[in-house]
Amino acid sequence: MSEDVAAATTVPGTAAETSPDNPWPLQLLSQKLKMHIDRAPSAWVEGQVIELNRRGTNAYLTLRDIDAEISLPASVWTNVLDRQETPLERGSRVVALIKAEFWLKTGRLNMSVKDIRPVGLGDLLARIERLRHALAAEGLFSDARKKRLPLLPHRIGLITGRNSDAKKDVLRNAALRWPAVEFEIREVAVQGNTAVAQVIAALRELDAHPEVDVIVIARGGGALEDLLPFSSEELIRAVSDAATPVVSAIGHEADRPILDDVADLRASTPTDAAKRIVPDVVEELARVRQARDLLRRGVTRLVERETDRLASLRSRPVLASPEVMVNNRHDDVERLKGRSRAAVTTAVVRAADQLVHLKAQVRALSPQKTLDRGYAVVQLAGGDTAPGTRRDVVRHPDQAPSGTPLTVRVAGGRFAAESTGGQEPADD
Question: Please, which contacts does 380-384 make with residues 24 or more away whose CB atoms are closer than 8 Å?
């Protein structure tokens, strides 16, 4: 008994503690795997039935992922299948409640289907609408995020099915409208579980191409199930993240996958896409001719209008006889010169008359004129005079007492005299 306890205590407690010298018993590993798997909850999964075999009370089926090459075998009780209103067939799209089970004795992992339900068109449409509303709430469909298409793309990236009618429609109609258009084509699966991955890979490759100016994702019409890849959330987000403008041309007018909402331009058909991404060379040439005609008429009208203006200006008197303006100015100058000369002459004559008048006044007041009128100037011939008086001019009889030699100046000259004494002047 003690040996069994000792052996039990030497078993590693975890898988990381095992070693070649101290391994786990296979039974212990199986038990731990079963305990771990039993704790895993059941899960609802969606897939497509690609195999279905009934064997008594059991049925074995294989489910494949909708968008990827991943398959999963599972088992189901036949009574679960018999509850379905419509019998399941290969190709049916279903949702199944799966629980992982581990068989301890055989070491087999089994996926047991506890419930299974077919996915109808109504369920698919409801799921697409829920996804559409959720992405719209994020703003992925906002007009502010949409990019403008180039007026004339240098090269168009085309993602379409292999040798599809959609590809032919786009190439043919684009070449008819603009023969020089160039394409970068990526042929991918446009339905099935690989469609989403291939379309995303082609989209990213063309988005990174330096010469591609716009990308068209084109596919002809089809059933709702065939168009489901173009409502895939993964594809929608890839289109939203693309830096190159993306045009959606999926199906017909009635088809509207979510790709139409996130694309920068939605075309109703591949033919419509070709018409909207390249201009019509015939229409553009007609517009060029129309523009040239408008330009020619505009220039002609401008030249004619300016010619008329020049003729009108030349017909004016000032331009018809330009010397008139010079003559008028010459006459004005001569008139002003005459007025200036007359004004100066008048000023000079007036000043000359004033000068003569002043000279006459000066002469009338000069001592010589006084002498000419019979007056004389008596001066002392020599000797001192009274203080404060002029030495040579006699102004008072006291200055020339009797016997004083004098000099008398008259108009005609001077002569000598001698004072005989003075007398007081008589009163008038």
Answer: 380/404, 380/405, 380/406, 380/407, 381/405, 381/406, 381/407, 381/416
- Domain shared by 361 and 380, yes or no: no
Same domain, 275 and 361: no
CA angle 379, 381, 384 (to 5 degrees): 90
* Residue 416, strand partner residues: 407
Domain that holds residue 9: 2-123
* Helices (H), ranges, 154-223: 165-177, 195-207
SS3 97: strand
Burial of 59 (0-12, 13-18, 19+ CB in 10 A): buried
Q: Are residues 131 and 272 in the same domain?
A: yes
In this structure, the answer to whether residues 135 and 266 fall within a common structural domain is: yes
Q: Do the beta carbons of residue 63 and residue 45 sit within 8 Å? A: yes
The whole-angstrom separation of Cα 395 and Cα 119 is 160
Whether residues 34 and 129 fall in one domain? no
Copy the structure tokens of residue 67: 């968008």
Residue 407 lies in a domain: yes
Residues 147 and 260: their CA atoms lie apart, in Å, by: 14
Per-residue pLDDT of 208-265, as tens digits, reads 999 999 999 999 877 777 788 898 899 999 999 999 999 999 876 566 889 999 999 9
CATH code of the domain covering residue 168:
3.40.50.261
Burial class (CB in 10 A: 0-12, 13-18, 19+), 209: middle
C-alpha pair distances (Å), 201 with each of 194, 195, 219, 234: 11, 10, 17, 11
Whether the pTM exceeds 0.85: the reply is no
Same domain, 136 and 274: yes
Query: Within this chain, do residues 75 and 184 fall inside the same structural domain, yes or no?
Result: no
In sequence order, which residues have a C-beta less than 8 Å from that of residue 188 and are 6 or more positions away? 159, 160, 161, 162, 195, 198, 199, 201, 202
400, part of any domain: yes
List pLDDT tens digits, range 267-318: 988 989 999 999 988 888 899 999 999 999 999 999 999 999 988 888 877 7
